[in-house]
Design goal:
Elements lengths: L1 E5 L7 E5 L19 E2 L5 E2 L7 E6 L8 E10 L8 E2 L2 E4 L2 E4 L1 H9 L8 E11 L9 E2 L3 E6 L12 E6 L6 H7 L2 E3 L6 E7 L8 E4 L12 E3 L5 H14 L8 E3 L1 E2 L13 E7 L4 E4 L1 E2 L7 E2 L1 E2 L2 E5 L14 E3 L4 E8 L4 E6 L10 E4 L6 E3 L4 E2 L3 E8 L4 E5 L24 E6 L10 E2 L1 E2 L6 E8 L4 E6 L4 E4 L13 E2 L10 E8 L4 E6 L5 E5 L2 E2 L2 E2 L6 E6 L2 E4 L2 E3 L9 E5 L2 E9 L11 E5 H4 L9 E3 L1 E4 L4 E4 L1
Length: 627
Amino acid sequence: MKRLFSIFAAGLMAAAVIVSCNKDPQEGGGEGDEKAPVLKAIDGAVLDAKGAPITTTFEAADFGVATSIGYELAVAKAGTDMKDEAVVNADIAAGNISMKQGNLSLAIQKLGFAVGDEAEVEFALYAYIGSSRGKNSLRSNLVKATFTVCAAKPDDSALDKIEVIGDFDGWSSDGVAKAGAYIYKYGEDNVYTGLVYYNAKAVNGWKLRIPTADGNWDDSANWGIDENELTNVNAQAKELYDSDPTHPEIKEITLACAGSSKDMKIFNHNFYYWIFDRTSNKLKVDQHDTWATQNQPMAFDYMYLVGDFNSWKEFDENSKMKYIPKQHTFYLDVTLEEGKGLKFLADGQAADKWYLQWGIGAEDGKAAYRGDNITTPAGNVRVYFDYNHMEYSFDASAYGTEEEGGVDVAERALDRPDEYFIVGSVMGKTWDDLDLSLGLNSETGIYTYSGLSYKVGDAFKVVKNQKAEWYGVGAMEPYTGTRNTLTGTDNFEFQKASGFDVSFNPTTGKVTIADCAIPGWGVKGNIMKDGKDDAWNSTFPMKLEGGIWVSDELEILYDGANTWGFKLCLYGNWDAGDIGVADGTTPQKGVAMQAVNKLEAGANSNINFNGKGKVKFDPTAMTITIE
C-alpha cells in the first residue's frame, strides 16, 4: 500500500492511498536538492500470519519542489540489488511503516521461497511523484533481514475497491468494513469482482459507492438503478420469478451512476459473486454452465461441506459452513479419515442441486468449479474455503477454537423445489435411504426415475422431501403398466422381475409405472450415433438371445485421451448395473473377457476397444465378447 504526502503538511499527514502494479525497481536520481528516503532497520522473525505487524520507520524523501510524494516498499533476495523484487502490502504513513506478517510472507514467497524456508532478504523504500513509481523515483538505502516464511492468506485490503453499502451493513463505511462488503479490482482492467454476504437483507436495498475522504456520498461514484427504469426493472424481476422461481434474479443490469439512482431491491439470496465493469456500469452475477442448463448464477444462501465423512449427504444442517465476512471465507470443524474425499456444495436452489460445487483445482490448496474430490487428511480439523481466491486449507490447531470474525450464516426462507424419492426395499436400499431421487423436467413439471431394477419381493413408495408425504397404491392388483396413487396407503409390490420407469405428477398426485424404455442390459460409451460421437449420453439396447445379451453392430471409439470405449448398464441406469472389466484388460475381437460388476466388486474399468463389432454379454459366465 502506498501513501501520498505533501512536504508542507504538518506531521506528514497521509493524503491518499494508491495501489500500483509496477514491480520494476527504479533507480533514484532527480535534479536539484533531491534527497532519497532513508529506511531504518527491520528486525527479522519467524513469521506468523496471526502475529503482530512488523514495523520500522523512515526519513521522508525530498524532491526539491512543493509536491505530494508517494511511497512503496519492496523486498528482494539479499545481495541482488533489488533484482526481481516483490512489492510488500504495507501501511506507510508519517514516517512509519507497518507490515502484516502474512502480507510480508506472501511477498517473500513471490521471490521463490516456500513455507518453512529461512529467507535472507533486502528491503528498499521508493519515493515517487504522481500516481505510481516511475523513472524519477528515489530509492532508499537497502536494509537486510532474515525471516522464516509462514503460510498466509491473500490480503485484499490494499486493492482498489468499491463499497457494497445497504441496509445489511447499516448504510455506513464502518459497517461495510466490518462486513467485508467490497468488490475488488484484481486485474489491470476496470472490472471489480468479489463475494458479498447480505445477511438475509439483500431485498431491503443496497447500492455500490466509493465514498469521499470524509465518508460522504459522491455522485460520481454512486451506482444504483436509474430512477426512470425502476418500474421496468421491477417488472422484469417479477416476470423472471414467475417463470422460474428457482432463480428469481436478473443476471445482468446496467446501473446508473448518479445521486438520483435508486436502491437495488431485486436480489434476495444471502451470497452473490458480483462482476462490475466500471467503464460500462454493467453489474452481473457470476455465472456457470451446468451439465443441463447454461448461464446459471453463482447466487446461493448457504455453503455446505460434503464428502465421505457424512456419506455425501446434500444440504446437511450439521455440515453447514460458518462464514468470516472480512476474509470471504467459509469454515467448518469436522472429523476426517485419511485419503477420503470432500467438496464444497452451495444451495443454488436449482433443479440440478449439484450445479454449485467446488473441488480441487490445478494443485493442492486451489479450488475449482466442478473440480475433482479433495483428498482429506486424518483427524479433527477446521476446513477453510476462501471463495474470492478459490483456495482451501485444513488446520488442526484451529479445531474447536473461536474463529475471529466468524458468524453463523443468517437463516433465509428457501425456495428450493420439492424433491421426490423412491424409498423401500429395492435396488439394495432400505426404507431409511433417500438415494433414489426423481429428476424434475422443468418443462413438464413431471418427476421421473428411469431404470428401477425390481425383483419379486421388493416393495417401494414415492415420498416427498424428507418423507413428509407418501404416495403408494390402494388395493393391490396385477401390474398393468400404470397405476394411480392414494397417499399413505399400500406399497408398490409386483409379481414381476423387471425394470421400471417411475414418474410422478405433483399436480395430480399420480404415480405412473411403466416397463423401462431400455428392456435390459445396454451399451453406453464413446459410440458413433448419427455420424458423431454419442459421448456416453445414450444407452444402446441389447437383445436377449438364448441367455446371451447381444447388441447391434456398434462403432466404438477409444484413444485413451478423449474417447474411452464402453461399459454395460442395466435399464440405462448405472445404479441398477455397472459392468466393465478388470483394470489392465486389453480387449481383442472374439476373445471372452471376464466381466466385473462395479456394484458388487467396488471397482471396474472401461472396455478400451476401438473399432466396429457386436457386444455380447453372458450373465451366467460373467463374460463380455466383442465379435
